[in-house]
Design goal:
- It is a single chain.
- The protein is α+β, with helices and mostly antiparallel strands.
- Helices cover 40% and strands 12% of the residues.
- It has four helices and four strands; from the N terminus they run H-E-E-E-E-H-H-H.
- The N and C termini lie far apart (109 Å).
């Protein structure tokens, strides 16, 4: 006679069946409760100098603009920087290819508040919104290009400012 794996032989077949079904139900419930969910899911907390404690969100794709894993789907709006890199955006900006769109968005995104302030493209490791930086991501622009772009915008702004003030003086 064959003895049961973990059930005593004194149990009736009906009791064994009910016990096995109960065990399967408990195992299935545990699997459902602890199965990882698809998409963004807070995994752990990390303290950053910029924003204190944030929940790190994992399971997303890397944004080609900011380098954070903050995209639910390629071509969608980034949860961190707010830019979408897709054909429609490229056409709206009158650019010839996606690479040009990424470069244009990186120039805007990485421009510091202060002219000449150093830029660390790979920091912070976790954004204030909780998205981790992809360690293998690299920007398509150089720090010097961002500074040149910022300087050009300031010069353009200064060149337009006197014209605006002289026009308003003539109108009053």
């Amino acid at each position: 006679m064959h003895s049961g794996f973990f059930l005593p032989q004194t149990c009736s077949p009906m009791k064994r069946t009910i016990l096995v079904l109960a065990i399967l139900l408990v195992v299935a419930t545990l699997v459902i409760l602890f199965w990882p969910q698809k998409g963004s899911e807070p995994v752990n907390k990390q303290t950053t100098a910029e924003s204190g404690t944030v929940e790190i969100i994992k399971g997303l794709k890397t944004c080609p603009v900011c380098g954070y894993d903050a995209l639910t789907e390629k071509g969608e709006v980034c949860g961190n920087c707010g830019y979408a890199i897709n054909k429609q955006e490229m056409e709206e900006e009158l650019l010839g290819d996606i690479n040009s769109l990424i470069i244009a968005r990186q120039l805007e995104f990485f421009m510091p508040d202060t002219l000449g302030k150093p830029i660390d493209f790979l920091k912070p490791e976790v954004s204030p919104k909780g998205y981790p930086k992809n360690e293998s991501w690299r920007p398509k622009v150089y720090e010097s290009q961002v500074f040149e772009y910022q300087k050009m915008l300031l010069e353009l702004e200064n060149a337009l400012a006197p014209a605006d003030s002289s026009e308003s003086a003539e109108n009053h």
